[in-house]
UniProtKB/TrEMBL annotation:
Residues of the Transposase Tn5-like N-terminal domain: 2-58
Gene name, Swiss-Prot/TrEMBL: tnpA
Transposase Tn5 dimerisation domain location: 345-444
InterPro entries (alphabetical): RNaseH-like_sf, TN5-like_N_sf, Tn5_transposase, Tn5p-like, Transposase_Tn5, Transposase_Tn5-like_C, Transposase_Tn5-like_N
Keywords carried by this UniProt record: Hydrolase
NCBIfam families: transpos_IS4_3 (NF033590)
Molecular functions (GO terms): hydrolase activity
Organism: Granulosicoccus antarcticus IMCC3135
Protein's recorded name: Transposase for transposon Tn5
Transmembrane portions of the chain: none
EC number(s) recorded for this UniProt protein: 3.1.-.-
Length: 444
């Protein structure tokens, strides 16, 4: 076994056989992320072992996730700044008979909600997960109200607290909490003040609050003299074409408060696109942070950190569409969460491979790929492994993606997650064939 035995090296399920089984299953699911569990496993014995693991009374979400969290912390410690991204996604298991699921947008829609903390560097290298809030809602009662068994908004505050706990173990790393509009909560900001900001926070403003002088927050900031401009390439997304964006940046230090008069000081940064293409909505972000912003460089840094929040959206896409976790067919929510923990680690690895290929193109491929996987990537593209040079991660990632449909022309840029997860399935299967042929030469 390769990467999974290292990533789950600290796992302790109370039985060495269970520990080995969990790592092997992670390897299998990473080899065929889009396949069902029976198809990903090799043989009836592995299938039975996988389902025994999911249903074992001593195995839960955290017993699988904790060793990965420890590895994530080690990767975080090597960086002066890390971005702790938080967001919520729904997992829809409609039509499946899984005990413990709850309603989603509609009462008849069954599933659960997932709110992880996904850590990346400012350069967007995925480091892993350090926390996750998973829950299923209670169905509404006859009076039309839902039992108040959980306050869902608490996930943002508790998520910040968990980041602070991690930050306490990383004295040389500054952790930045990054959230979208729903995280714009004074309760979160006050908690940060109470804890004396072990981690900084950066959220996209949702509420146009009244300031002490009676003016509204957004208008007040936009009335300031622009600090300057920032520009970047806006990547294509669903319904949005790729384009160059130029934004004017406005900054103001403000005091915001709630109806009870509890006040918090914050820097507000508004980045507003200038001259967008005809018919296109301007790209505008209104950001709040505890960090002082005294010049354009500091404002641009916050903007770049917020732009990195897109990485958690990509992670969700890999988890749901690449790993197809919404197709898992298990009987209990507890079993589902064990499988989900493994797939969450697998989705991180897929995203990490893609990003390392872009951010660290010259890194030796052997640091993240096994020798047979490298051979398979070259063989499937009818190429020979170079003898005089060491294959780089960018070269191998591109070959893997080409096996998944990436054309690889100069004008195509770098491969995305979708072609990578498709290619991984084929490359890993080919690598398994190489291992089998080597172990069984008499069958050749």
């Amino acid at each position: 076994m390769g990467w999974a035995s290292e990533e789950l090296g600290g796992i302790d399920l109370g039985d060495a056989r269970l520990n080995k089984r969990a790592a092997l299953l992670a390897e299998r699911l990473a080899e065929s992320p889009a396949d069902s569990i029976p198809h990903a496993c090799q043989g009836w014995a592995e299938i039975q072992a996988a389902y025994r693991l999911f249903n074992h009374e001593c195995v839960d979400f955290w017993s699988i996730m904790n060793p990965h969290i420890q590895c994530t912390m080690q990767r975080m410690s090597a960086n002066p700044v890390v971005l702790c991204l938080q967001d919520t996604t729904t997992l829809d298991f409609q039509g499946q008979d899984i005990d413990g699921l709850g309603p989603l947008q509609f009462e008849s829609q069954k599933g659960m909600l997932l709110h992880p903390t996904y850590v990346v560097t400012p350069g967007r290298e995925p480091l892993g997960l350090i926390d996750s809030w998973n829950w299923a809602r209670e169905p509404k009662q006859k009076n039309g109200k839902r039992p108040e068994t959980i306050n869902e908004s608490e996930r943002w505050v508790e998520g910040y607290e968990r980041i602070c706990e991690s930050a306490a173990q990383l004295p040389d790393t500054r952790c930045i909490y990054v959230g979208d509009r729903e995280s714009d909560m004074l309760a979160l900001m006050r908690r940060a003040v109470a804890l004396d900001h072990p981690a900084d926070w950066l959220v996209r403003a949702r509420h146009d609050r009244a300031l002490p002088d009676g003016r509204k927050l957004f208008a007040s900031v936009a009335e300031q003299k622009p600090s300057g401009t920032v520009n970047f390439r806006f990547r294509p997304r669903r319904g949005v074409k790729e384009r160059d964006v130029v934004q004017h940046v406005y900054v103001q230090r403000v005091t915001i408060s709630d109806k009870n008069g509890d006040a918090v000081e914050a820097s507000c940064v508004i980045a507003r696109e200038q001259n967008p293409p005809e018919g296109m909505k301007p790209v505008e972000w209104r950001l709040l942070s505890n960090r002082a912003v005294e010049d354009l460089d500091q404002a641009a840094e916050l903007i770049n950190w917020y732009r990195a929040r897109w990485e958690i959206e990509m992670y969700f896409d890999i988890l749901k569409n690449g790993c197809k976790v919404e197709s898992l067919q298990l009987k209990r929510l507890a079993s589902l969460e064990v499988a989900l923990a493994i797939f969450m680690i697998v989705a991180w690895r897929i995203n990490r491979l893609m990003r390392l290929g872009r951010q660290c193109p010259g890194m030796e491929a052997s640091l993240v790929f096994e020798a047979d996987e490298i051979r398979a990537a070259y063989a499937m593209n009818r190429k020979k492994v170079p003898k005089d040079t060491v294959p780089t991660i960018n070269e191998v990632v591109r070959l893997v993606a080409m096996a998944g449909g990436f054309i690889g022309r100069k004008s195509d840029g770098e491969p995305g997650a979708k072609t990578l997860w498709r290619g991984l399935e084929k490359i890993m299967s080919f690598a398994d064939g190489l291992r089998y042929a080597r172990a069984n030469p008499e069958t050749g």
